[in-house]
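User:
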Amino acid sequence: MPDTILRAMSQPHGSPPGTRAGLVVAVDGPASSGKSTVGSGVAEALGYRFVDTGLLYRGVTWLAQQLRTPLDVGESVAELAPRVSLRAGPEGRYESVLVDGMDVTDEVLSPGVDRRVSEVARHPEVRSALLGRQRELAEGGDIVVAGRDIGTVVLPHADVKVFLDASPEERARRRAEQRGFAPDSPEATAILGDLRRRDEIDRTRATAPLRPAPDALRVATDGHGLEETIDLVADAVRAERDRRAGASVEPEPAVEPEPAVEPEPAVEPEPAVEPEPTAKTKRAPVARTSPRRESTAEPRLSDRITPFMQLSDLVGRTIMNATTRVHIEGLERPLDIEGPLLVVSNHASNADGPLLVCWLTPALGRRMHLLGKQEAMDRPLLGWALAQNGVIGVRRGAADLEAFRAAKRVLDEGHVLGAFPEGTRSPDGCLQPAKDGAAILALRTGAPILPVGLSGTHRFWPRGKRLFRPGGQVRMRVGTPFTLPRTSGGDRRRAQAEATRLIMTKIAELLPPSQRGVYAAEVDRVRGE
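Assistant: Predicted structure:
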């Protein structure tokens, strides 16, 4: 590979953050992961321009096929790049592919181009020839750019980076369905084989291999609806935009949390829409429902406490009472709460989940579903036992929409859900800044919230230790249920942040001052201290 090409590929985008008028959003992912459809939807939601860089590579591939240019000779194919361009529509979407000024958009989306475009895109000469044009399109910001190395090579200084992914089987199913092929047809089998081959080419090519940027938001789209994926990405962009504008740097200290927005439509719109697999940039109509999303076909969840749960709770209470002094406050009054209930607690130890479940389940007289890390669920025996006790696995490091949907279903059907808003254990037992997930669940379902404060568990079973340390004492303080106030408008992101602050303040009030962490000042403000 010529040194000049290597230097060109390694040069960062010329407009680092802070120098552009608007944000640049990079959307990466493998073939048929929904990059173009999700990216186009996000652009529409934000009023941004949109470009699918894959159209440029498709245009070059189609032209090379028409001219019978050998696709394995990178320099020859790269010479065709200047003849290919994109044309923007009236809304700023670069959705038309031109070759020598002629519109060939439909032609470049053909199966023949599908099968060969990765062979063309792997050539460093071709990528270098198209690199400058992609960067020029992003100048000025207010744009969503979709592709396969956007966040790592083309626009490493993008303000928001997203990596969409899905299993090869799911992506092949989407593409086959869109083309009208039966799932078990020879055509569908061929599509799956082509996708796997393209994945191998994209991930192992020497130049700009497909991989998520280290700072990218990773979103697994298997079985998920288009709208919820678009909402998730658009919210991430809005949050970054608000942060830059200073709107969400620090909540006003003298204002009580504003009433939250009206519960939004369910995350899973009915009928559901899957991210479309092709490179077309237009939004697909709401038409199909993914088999995994047919929630109406699923049996309703049960509140019943099974004998296995009763035994697990008894064993858990026995072990904890034998190894530490357990003090429980707030259960002297009956918790005869009917309907949905969201139990929220601080998180500092592996002992927190058992403590919540083993004491609250019999007190409530109802099964509690608890959000926990997927790593534990993946262990053969432990995962089975946790699942039997109603634990819902959450994959960390990615936006786990499947877990969110499962959690929302628990509340939608009127059951009890336990969650740790901080998302992970505190290293020192003090409250950390919480994520908005619990607040969003409460806002969208209207479920009452039961705050719980756990103290001393970080000493009983410190983070990073395989086993607990007998001795000492742990305390669980159960607060009073409350609901989030509502409004009929306003800034959704601000409402979520305010709701999260209110939830964490309620938890902090149940903790000793030494464990209130970043929410200590909020407790003092509420109490007028």
